From TrEMBL:
<dbReference type="InterPro" id="IPR040064">
    <property type="entry name" value="MoaA-like"/>
</dbReference>
<dbReference type="GO" id="GO:0061798">
    <property type="term" value="F:GTP 3',8'-cyclase activity"/>
</dbReference>
<dbReference type="InterPro" id="IPR010505">
    <property type="entry name" value="MoaA_twitch"/>
</dbReference>
<dbReference type="GO" id="GO:0006777">
    <property type="term" value="P:Mo-molybdopterin cofactor biosynthetic process"/>
</dbReference>
<dbReference type="InterPro" id="IPR006638">
    <property type="entry name" value="Elp3/MiaA/NifB-like_rSAM"/>
</dbReference>
<protein>
    <recommendedName>
        <fullName>GTP 3',8-cyclase</fullName>
        <ecNumber>4.1.99.22</ecNumber>
    </recommendedName>
</protein>
<keyword id="KW-0501">Molybdenum cofactor biosynthesis</keyword>
<keyword id="KW-0411">Iron-sulfur</keyword>
<dbReference type="InterPro" id="IPR058240">
    <property type="entry name" value="rSAM_sf"/>
</dbReference>
<dbReference type="GO" id="GO:0046872">
    <property type="term" value="F:metal ion binding"/>
</dbReference>
<dbReference type="InterPro" id="IPR013785">
    <property type="entry name" value="Aldolase_TIM"/>
</dbReference>
<keyword id="KW-0004">4Fe-4S</keyword>
<dbReference type="GO" id="GO:0005525">
    <property type="term" value="F:GTP binding"/>
</dbReference>
<dbReference type="InterPro" id="IPR007197">
    <property type="entry name" value="rSAM"/>
</dbReference>
<keyword id="KW-0547">Nucleotide-binding</keyword>
<keyword id="KW-0949">S-adenosyl-L-methionine</keyword>
<dbReference type="GO" id="GO:0051539">
    <property type="term" value="F:4 iron, 4 sulfur cluster binding"/>
</dbReference>
C-alpha cells in the first residue's frame, strides 16, 4: 500500500521546508538578536549525505516541492553541490530557495543550470539607511545587485517584506511601485514572535491594516488568483507588470489549506511553524534505523498535525520560542 503524508483533516503535505543552517551573515532584528546567539555545533547539523537520504524518504512519501532555507543557505559551504544532488531526483517536481540576497552571479548561473528558477528574497526596505537599521549590515547594494541579476536571468522572484509600524511603513509604497516595471511579486508579512529574545508584541500592522493602507494609496487595486495552498492573498495595481501579496503570518488565516512540513538543520521535524518539534529524524537516523522506522516517525507526526497554528502554539505555551534563523521560516 502506497504511503502518503495526509493528515486527519485531509490535508496533503507535499511541501518540505528544509533548513540547512541556522547561521546567517545578517542580523535582522525580527529574526535574531544582534549578539549572544548560540549557533549549532557542526557535528549537530545534518550532513549533506544525511539531508539527501532524508529528502529521498520525504519524496517517497509524496513530497514534491522542497524549499531550501536557513539561516542563510549560502553561508553553508557545499550548498550548490547539495542542490545539484536534489535536482537529480526525478520525483521531485520543484526546488525553490529563500535567501537574504547573498548570492553571487556565478552561484545564480549554477542555480539556473540545476533548474532552480524560483527564489524568495527577504528584503525589508528599499532605503539603504533603513536597510542597515533592520539588518545591522551594510549590504544594501549587494542585495539589490543580486535581485537585478535574478530578474535579468528570468528568475521568478518574490520579495518578502516584514512590516513593523516603527521601522518600515515608508517602504510599502516604494515596494509596490517597484512592481510597475518589474515582473516580480512583493509580499508583505505580519511580524511573528520568532526573534530569539522572548519578547514580542502583537503586530499592530496586521493583514487588514496593511490592506487598508495600500488601498488608500493605490485606489483600484485588483484581486488576482492565488496559487493552490498559497499563504498570501494577492493583488496588483492595474497596468503594473508585477503584483503584491499580504501574508497573515501571525493571524494565520491560511492554516486550513496548509501543505507544509518543516525539517531543521539539526533534524527537528515540525508539522507547524508555531508548534514544537514532534521528533528528531537526525537522532533516529544516527541510531541506525532504516527507511521503515523513519517513515513511521514522519507518518505519526503528520497524523497528529494540529488543526491550525493557534492549536499548535498552545502546545508550546511554556516553552521559549526559537529564533527564525533556527526554524527556517
Amino acid at each position: 500500500m502506497e504511503q502518503k503524508l495526509i493528515d486527519k483533516y485531509g490535508r496533503k503535505l507535499d511541501y518540505l521546508r528544509l533548513s540547512v543552517t541556522d547561521r546567517c551573515n545578517f542580523r535582522c532584528y525580527y529574526c535574531m538578536p544582534e549578539e549572544g546567539m548560540n549557533f549549532v555545533q557542526r557535528d549537530d547539523l545534518l550532513s549533506y549525505e544525511e539531508l539527501d537520504y532524508l529528502t529521498r524518504i520525504f519524496v517517497d512519501l509524496g513530497v514534491r516541492k522542497i524549499r531550501i532555507t536557513g539561516g542563510e543557505p549560502f553561508v553553508r559551504k557545499g550548498i550548490l553541490d547539495f542542490i545539484e544532488l536534489l535536482s537529480k531526483n526525478q520525483n521531485l517536481k520543484e526546488i525553490t530557495l529563500t535567501s537574504n540576497g547573498s548570492i553571487s552571479k556565478a552561484q545564480i548561473n549554477q542555480l539556473a543550470k540545476f533548474g532552480v528558477k524560483k527564489i524568495n528574497i527577504s528584503l525589508d526596505s528599499l532605503d539603504p539607511k533603513r536597510f542597515y537599521e533592520i539588518t545591522r549590515r551594510d549590504k544594501f547594494e549587494e542585495v539589490m545587485g543580486c535581485i537585478k541579476t535574478l530578474l535579468s536571468e528570468d528568475f521568478n522572484v518574490k520579495l518578502n517584506c516584514v512590516i513593523d509600524g516603527k521601522k518600515n511603513i515608508e517602504d510599502i509604497v516604494p515596494f509596490i511601485n517597484l512592481t510597475k516595471d518589474h515582473a516580480l511579486s512583493v509580499r508583505f508579512l505580519e511580524e511573528m514572535p520568532f526573534n530569539g529574545t522572548g519578547k514580542f508584541d502583537i503586530p499592530e500592522w496586521n493583514y487588514q491594516a496593511l490592506y487598508n493602507y495600500i488601498d488608500s494609496q493605490f485606489p483600484g487595486i485588483q484581486k488576482i488568483s492565488d496559487e493552490s495552498n498559497s499563504t498570501s492573498v494577492n493583488y496588483k495595481v492595474p497596468g503594473f507588470s508585477g503584483s503584491f501579496g499580504i501574508i497573515p503570518a501571525f493571524s494565520r488565516t491560511f492554516c486550513g489549506t496548509c501543505n507544509r512540513i518543516r525539517l531543521s538543520a539539526t533534524g527537528e521535524l515540525r508539522t507547524c511553524l508555531y508548534g514544537p518539534p514532534v521528533t528528531n529524524l537526525r537522532d533516529i537516523l544516527r541510531s541506525g534505523c532504516g527507511d521503515d522506522q523513519l517513515k513511521s516517525a514522519i507518518l505519526e507526526a503528520v497524523a497528529n498535525k494540529a488543526k491550525d497554528g493557534f492549536e499548535a502554539e498552545n502546545q508550546t505555551s511554556n516553552q521559549a520560542k526559537n529564533s527564525m534563523s533556527f526554524l527556517g521560516g
